[in-house]
Amino acid sequence: MSVKVINSEDFANAVKDGVSVVDFNATWCGPCKMLGPVLEKLSDEITDVKFYAMDVDENPDIAEKFGIMSIPYVAVFRDGVKVDQNVGFTPEASMRSFIEKNK
């Protein structure tokens, strides 16, 4: 598995079934760049969850819909409904726990 980049048009369809983790980020964001490899690694290990990444600058409508003011912003969706979020860089072990508790 890997983290798939999606946009506003893909979003609803991507998160509608099962558990999805969406990393809202931006190219200029240092902590986002640090979190990317962590989520890539976890996407290989947690195979019953779908992983996505979305650039908030390119998709401001989705960022606005969820009130995203700070990035990186990682949200967990279950069957299209946001069940939890985590803001800021999070080390691998903590991110794994965050995802596992929301599956």
Automatic annotation (TrEMBL):
Keywords: Disulfide bond, Electron transport, Redox-active center, Transport. GO terms for cellular component: cytosol. GO terms for biological process: cell redox homeostasis. The record marks 30-31 as: Contributes to redox potential value. GO terms for molecular function: protein-disulfide reductase activity. The active site is at 29 (nucleophile), 32 (nucleophile). The keyword Electron transport applies. Residues 1-103 form the Thioredoxin domain. InterPro entries: Thioredoxin (IPR005746), Thioredoxin-like_sf (IPR036249), Thioredoxin_domain (IPR013766). Disulfide bonds join 29-32. The keyword Disulfide bond applies. Pfam families: Thioredoxin (PF00085). This is Thioredoxin.
